[in-house]
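hi! just following up on the protien thing from before. the input was this:
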Amino acid sequence: MVNTILIMFQIFLAFVGVYQFSISLFGIVRKRKLLNHKPQKSFAVLVAAHNEEKVVGALIENLKKLDYPKELYDIFVICDNCTDGTADIARSYGVQACERKNPHLRGKGHAIEWMLKELWALPRQYDAIVMFDADNLVGNDFLIHMNNDLCEGHKVIQGYLDTKNPSDSWVTASYAITYWYCNRLWQLSRRNLKMANFLGGTGMCFESGLLKEMGWGATSLVEDLEFSMRCIQRGIHPVLNYEAKVYDEKPLSFKASSRQRLRWMQGHFTVARHYFFPLLWASIKERSFVKFDAALYSISVYNTFFGFIVTSLIWMDNIIPADNVFTSIYYYMPNWVAGVAISLSLIMFPLVMILEGVKSWKMYAHLFSMVIFQLSWLPITFYAFFTQNNKQWSHTQHTRVLRLEEVQSKQV
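and the predicted 3d structure came back as:
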């Protein structure tokens, strides 16, 4: 009985793998659609910051130099429970420092919800809200691309997420490769198929009218994914803008990376519990492939969790000197099937790097260490399952002070 359940689950995981691989093929070809609308949308640019005095200045400098009419955007730094000089630095650059003190409701989701209420009460109202993290750097044409998509009728837009410091360590290199993969074969493929994209936590743009109607309401540990699901439930499809670049600082050490990814997985379990069945039911009732895709993505964290358990059971069963109890589905297939499946999975990462124009041989060498990084998601997700009720937000320290010119000149 147990073996039958394990085989059925392996079949489901195989289906998900084939499904995602099929979707990813539509991201290989990049369809360029150049839009050129006159700058007309006004933006409130929000910068979420918690004790970010070391890096926030570089981002503010960057934002003040954007190629967009200065009268059409204002910068607001959300100084969320800060105990350092973040607010003073923001004011020294002539932007608005909005200080929030609430030690009981911590985290970016709560800070955004508070800031939006402050914005709606201001005399000036904006056409759209753009959100960044304090450690980011932004392409100078970012608001031009947001303006173009808003003029095309899109209400929720996600920029291209890249890594600010890919060469700092094997961990940051692994993040960079993963981001290139997600941008090209996860996000772009869905954009090409006119499906919904998923928000990435920063480099996001929202039409103000939509936010006022929906409210923010995303206060989990993964507020970006939560808001994505809320949008898709309402038939609103977030879209990717591949040209709007955002550079995000990544943790240098494996320990800091594990802590960050644990928080992501804990939050993902929460989102899965709240949105999988409603989205699945809606996809059947409305015959909506987009909602089915979102439902499937919402439970990907459970796929990883149970996949780790199944794989561990099969490996232990093979190691223990006794008759095998658990069976792999590959036992019922020709030997070449497993080889093809593994080869196709591995080839996608170097393929993405080639498509994205990566030239550094050192980055290609990091493909080997990235295997460790990818496998580490398994125990992290396993631990996250048993600690998912922990809603305590943890801060990732950022110390890499770079300017946009430095990042762009060091493109790998």
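The chain has a mean pLDDT of 90.
The first helix runs from residue 2 to 24.
cheers
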